[in-house]
Write a structure and sequence with these properties.
alpha/beta
Length: about 270
């Protein structure tokens, strides 16, 4: 029987935090990753456009005979999953539910902060999922769109980053949160700076780790083989490789550029 890979897509390079977790936990798996770097960021775009792009990304990965689709993009996960499930019978796993579940389980005082792109925060997806566990949980949400640019530019240690973080996250200082959901796959790259900002007193929930338990049931149990990795982007190969090296800690070699442009959205 032909070995089938796991497919992952993201709006750009941030989804490599999810790829990294999957690769380290399931080294036997073949993985195909697509980053839509020509159209990043998805956060400010309309729901219809995000769904349209997400379906295009899915159709591309389906051409690689994937057995499982992981949507690493929080914005896509918040609005596109029902539409994607209409075009494929393979399992589709997003990052919203695993992140929400992890945040609820880890929080002691049930006061949870959520940061993400404008699209993710606007969708209220994390809040809705968290409240399903307990409707008395208090949540506080904040869109932090510039965080994506900070990661894409590699400005992790730039002094401007601390200023921007304080501008966004001072909102949470008076809310007495004990847990913060990093509701964008770019954001875990900023974890060291975020931990410093909160003086280590706030739990940071990274969906790239929370998602692993959902993937477990679909993986190959034979760990004697080493899986392959393929990477595709829609633009900016050189920039993608530079940031990928920072996130993964090693260079990637199998990177190809593809053009996606056909509209698949059906309202």
């Amino acid at each position: 029987m032909e070995k089938q890979p796991i497919g992952i897509f993201d709006s750009g390079v941030g989804g490599l935090t999810v790829f990294k977790s999957i690769r380290e936990t399931f080294p036997q798996e073949d993985i195909v990753y697509f980053g839509d770097t020509a159209r990043v960021p998805y956060g400010p775009k309309s729901k219809k456009t995000v769904i349209d792009y997400s379906i295009q990304n899915t159709r591309f990965l389906l051409q690689h005979n994937i057995k499982l689709l992981v949507i690493a993009c929080n914005t896509s996960s918040s609005v596109a999953i029902p539409y994607i499930q209409k075009i494929t019978s393979i399992p589709v796993i997003g990052v919203i539910l695993p992140g929400a579940e992890a945040a609820y389980n880890i929080s002691s005082n049930k006061r949870i902060g959520i940061i993400g792109t404008e699209g993710t925060i606007r969708s209220n997806a994390y809040v809705d999922e968290i409240l399903k566990f307990n409707d008395s949980v208090e949540t506080f949400s904040k869109a932090c769109p510039l965080f994506v640019s900070l990661v894409e530019e590699g400005w992790i240690k730039n002094p401007a980053t601390e200023i921007i973080i304080d501008n966004y996250l001072s909102y949470f200082k008076e809310k007495d949160i004990d847990t913060l959901v990093l509701g964008c796959t770019h954001y875990p790259v900023l974890s060291p700076v975020l931990n410093k900002y909160f003086e280590g007193k706030v739990n940071l929930v990274d969906s790239s780790h929370a998602i692993l338990s959902k993937i477990q049931q679909y993986v190959d149990e034979d760990k004697t083989c080493i899986g392959t990795s393929q990477f595709f982007v829609s633009d900016n190969e050189e920039k993608f490789m530079k940031i990928a090296n920072m996130i993964l800690g090693y260079p990637i070699h199998d990177l190809k550029r593809v053009a996606l442009g056909e509209s698949w959205f059906v309202d």
